[in-house]
Amino acid sequence: MLYLLRHGETEENVRHILQGQTHGTLTALGRQQAAEAARELMDVPFDVMLCSDLKRCVDTANIIRDTWATLGRTILPTLSLTPLLRERDWGSATGMVVDKDHRITIPPDVESIKAVKERARIFLDFVARTYAGKNVLAVSHGFFCRIIQTVYHNVEIPDIQPMKNSEVRMLDLSDS
After folding, report:
1. Could you please report the per-residue DSSP string of 3-67?
2. Is pLDDT at 168 greater than 70 in this prediction?
3. Are residues 166 and 8 in contact, defined by beta-carbon separation less than 8 angstroms?
4. Which of 37, 40, 46, 151 has the most Cβ atoms closer than 10 angstroms to its Cβ?
5. How many whole angstroms separate alpha carbon 82 and alpha carbon 128?
6. Which member of 7, 9, 12, 141 is catalytic?
7. Do 131 and 47 meet the contact criterion of CB atoms below 8 Å apart?
8. Longest dimension (CA), the chain
9. Residue 156, CB-side half-sphere exposure with 13 Å CA sphere
10. Which of 11, 12, 16, 87 is catalytic?
11. What is the pLDDT of residue 102?
12. What are phi and psi for residue 100, nearest 5 degrees?
């Protein structure tokens, strides 16, 4: 079973900044959200925790592991960082504010949806092959988690609800 978890809230999320592949900084709420996710997932026997190599995800994963250790979990899953789980590269739009009052035109140097979907396919194939029959926790980013789900369900982006910070969604890869 693949458990997708979006990182905790960041300062950049609060300010509606396109973070893309920048590291980001968890807020106090983001750290709290990660600890709450750890408590919700305490009883799941994870075999591995795969994580985007960007700081906001690594920090979220470390808070989860630290919370589990504090709560007495004796076996912690191995933490493995991978750039496959990075957020979409927003190119020259990285750092821009985007909200209901600030819209942008997508510049040509932004990672294409096709490329993001291909990366999601590669990730899902990797997990299905490498961790068949295992419980995998993947700590990633909002848009990329959404893309993983579109590939898994073979639907379009609007068909998948955006994930909240530290929200978990499960995908059964046993039929893959």
Report:
1. EEEEPPPBHHHHTTB--TTS---B-HHHHHHHHHHHHHTTTS--SEEEEESSHHHHHHHHHHHHH
2. yes
3. yes
4. 37
5. 16
6. 7
7. yes
8. 49
9. 1
10. 87
11. 85
12. -65, -20
pLDDT of residue 30: 98
Tens of pLDDT, residues 35-76: 999 999 999 999 999 999 999 999 999 999 999 999 998 888
Q: Determine whether 111 is exposed, middle or buried from the number of CB atoms within 10 Å of its CB (0-12, 13-18, 19+).
A: middle
Beta bridge partners of 140: 6
Catalytic site includes residue 36:
no
* Total Cβ atoms within 10 A of residue 88: 24
For 164, the 3-state DSSP assignment is coil
Average pLDDT over residues 118-136: 97
Token reading at 67:
């919370």
The tally of CA atoms less than 13 A away on the side-chain side of residue 106 is 8
> How far from each other are the two terminal CA atoms of the chain, in whole angstroms?
11
- Return the structure tokens found at 51: 């994580």
Among the listed residues 56, 116, 113, the one whose alpha carbon sits nearest the alpha carbon of residue 81: 56
pLDDT value, residue 74 = 85
- One-letter amino acid at 160 equals I
- Pick the closest to residue 68 from 103, 36, 112 (CA basis): 36
Our answer to whether residue 156 is catalytic in this structure is: no
Q: What are the strands, taking DSSP E only, across the chain?
A: 2-6, 48-52, 78-82, 136-140, 168-171
Q: At 171, list the tokens.
A: 């995908």
